[in-house]
Write a structure and sequence with these properties.
The chain is mostly helical. The chain has one domain. It is about 70% helix and about 5% strand. It has a two-stranded antiparallel sheet. About 0% of the residues are buried. The mean pLDDT is about 80.
Amino acid sequence: MASGKKAQGFEKELARLEEIVETLEADQELELEKALALFEEGVKLAESCGKRLDQAERKISLLLKDRGGALVETELDPEDEEA
């Protein structure tokens, strides 16, 4: 169930990032302070989404075949995910 919450968090962050990009692209009269705040939030969201995608990629790459040819999933160590 935890991975479902993570996926929802990712989707929510990605939707917010898209919203920020649309606002910055569309609103030519946006106040500088507001634009900078949105840009900063967008950078943080992009970094967070990138980390989540990297973690997903690593998890997928840990699917290994055992000697019998069956796929075996190896969980990442939470400490490894932070690195």
